[in-house]
Design brief:
The protein has 181 residues and is of the alpha+beta class. Helices cover 59% and strands 13% of the residues. Strands 1-2-3-4 form a four-stranded antiparallel sheet.
């Protein structure tokens, strides 16, 4: 079991990362929404197409996603917003149970997940859709358009996978304390 100071640090990490993701996500979406017209990532670059940022690899293609991940469950923003409230609550409860006594990367991963969930939840409540704008790919092979919240969620999932494979070793290494003289 961790000491109270360590628990406080874990909560600060968890909440700080989540807050950073939400603020960054919402500010980027507000800027994109105010400065770019909606654009299909499949249209040619130009008036109704994406704006190139890094050659053809990264482009801005503002879209409004009324569905869930990868556009699934289209036109279900209300149901997804309600589901998000349950997910957000579960993330906080899980952090209270496990994040404060496990290795700190779990608090980081849960903070990224919480921030991403809140960022997309705010869009669904405010707009009835999530603003996606990062379009990456090579030539006609494009990944799904995403935003900062989606990137945080994806990063958290990668951290969860790493923790599943290497968490025990990490936990042992972090719990080893050097012997005194």
């Amino acid at each position: 079991m961790t000491d109270p100071a360590d628990r406080r640090r874990r909560w600060l990490l968890f909440a700080g990362v989540a807050l950073l993701v939400v603020v960054t996500d919402q500010l980027t979406k507000l800027w994109i929404d105010a400065n770019f017209a909606a654009a299909s990532p499949h249209a040619p670059v130009g008036a109704a197409g994406p704006t190139p940022i890094i050659d053809g690899f990264v482009r801005i293609a503002k879209t409004y996603n009324t569905g869930g991940i990868f556009g699934l469950f289209g036109n279900s923003a209300t149901i997804l917003a309600l589901s998000s409230t349950i997910v957000i609550a579960l993330i906080v409860v899980y952090h209270a149970r496990e994040g404060t006594r496990s290795a700190w990367p779990l608090s980081l991963a849960l903070g990224l997940l919480l921030g991403g969930a809140i960022g997309n939840f705010l869009d669904r409540v405010r707009l009835g859709a999530v603003i996606d704008f990062v379009d990456m790919g090579i030539g006609s092979f494009r990944w799904y358009t995403f935003n900062v919240a989606d990137a945080a969620i994806s990063t958290s999932l990668l951290l969860f996978i790493l923790l599943a494979f290497f968490g025990d070793r990490l936990e042992r290494r972090l719990n080893q304390r050097p012997a005194g003289p």
